[in-house]
Design brief:
Length: 334
């Protein structure tokens, strides 16, 4: 297939390019702009487009792609909430994704945020560089014996359960579907309200759906322990940022670690260091000393990028050769 790769960064070109050279099955054209109604014309004449989390793949864009001859959308990520699946189905465009690349990468980053917040690594780093070796304000706590709530026990959540059990934590789980492996590791499935009320650390690992949109709102925060640590490495819109800010101001939330943000499309993956941020809500988050934010980098390991590239191109090969793909996503019935 001839494939237009949108939102290309140097690492995308490196890993997708290598996978393409290894397979010699597809012709990739790398494009820096994000896919939207303005840039969709760039895909005219391409069999497929390859997109990422902040590309716009709504009905209007899909109409343009279909008119230009595109018949497949290959997501180089697991989430597909930015794709209008019903419109894709109506237009005869196949949508494929990478359901699992390296759950270890995201799980390990989750724990990195937990450890950074707990032991104040972010603050200690800057203090030492300034010649300040005082320990006041850097007090942490032992993770052993603490209760961790894992919301979503798919492949990533499962690895978080495994790691936190290794720290000697009690782990509470909540998911629509019980994962027997999580139970074997010692995870205890409880109602969501019970998880909120008992957990010292709450970590989110759910897909973004209408049911999980703003799962963490003012009501949820009020049910949590005073001084709770909240971690989100899943999707930004699972968290109502305004409610989180109020929780931080009141002390109900004692620590916040984010790798995703609801309005990240205007921020993440770009170098904005020389301009003034226009997002007042995000700017407010940055003022809190007990908040650590990374720019959607939890997936960003060599292992994960190699896996993403192989699976993305493998999906297109499977579609081209059989008309089917095990990693195809479709609109829910009804």
């Amino acid at each position: 297939m001839k494939v237009a790769v949108f939102s290309t960064k140097p690492y995308d070109e490196q890993f997708l390019g290598q996978a393409s050279r290894d397979s010699q099955e597809h012709e990739l054209v790398f494009l820096e702009p994000r896919l939207n109604t303005t840039t969709a014309a760039l895909a005219k004449g391409f069999d497929a487009v390859c997109v990422f989390v902040n590309d716009q793949v709504d009905g209007a864009v899909l109409e343009q792609l279909a008119e230009g001859g595109t018949r497949a959308v290959a997501l180089r990520c697991a989430g597909f909430n930015n794709v209008d699946l019903k419109a894709a189905e109506r237009l005869g465009i196949d949508v494929v994704r990478v359901p699992a690349y390296s759950p270890y990468a995201v799980a390990e980053h989750t724990v990195a945020l937990i450890l950074t917040l707990n032991r104040q690594i972010h603050r200690a780093y800057h203090r030492i560089r300034d010649g300040n070796f005082a320990l006041d304000g850097l007090l942490g706590f032992d993770l052993r014996g603490r209760t961790v709530g894992v919301v979503g026990t798919g492949q990533i959540g499962l690895e978080v359960v495994r790691i936190m059990r290794g720290f000697g934590c009690r782990v509470l789980c909540h998911d629509l579907h019980t994962n027997p492996e999580a139970q074997q590791l010692g995870g205890e499935y409880v109602a969501l309200d019970d998880l909120f009320s008992q957990a010292d650390i709450v970590s989110l690992h759910c897909p973004l759906t209408p049911d999980t949109h703003h799962l963490i709102n003012a009501d949820a925060v009020a049910k949590m322990k005073q001084g709770v640590m909240l971690i989100n490495t899943s999707r930004g819109a699972m968290v109502d940022t305004a409610a989180i800010i109020e929780g931080l101001k009141s002390g109900q939330i004692g620590y916040l670690g984010l790798d995703v943000y609801e309005e990240e499309g205007d921020l993440f993956f770009e170098d904005l260091s020389n301009i003034v941020l226009k997002d007042d809500v995000f700017a407010r988050l940055l003022t809190f000393p007990n908040v650590v934010i990374t720019g959607h980098q939890a997936f960003f390991t060599r292992n994960a990028l190699e896996s993403i590239a192989r699976t993305t191109l493998g999906n297109l090969t499977e579609l081209e050769s059989t008309g089917q793909c095990a990693n195809r996503v479709t609109a829910p019935a009804g």
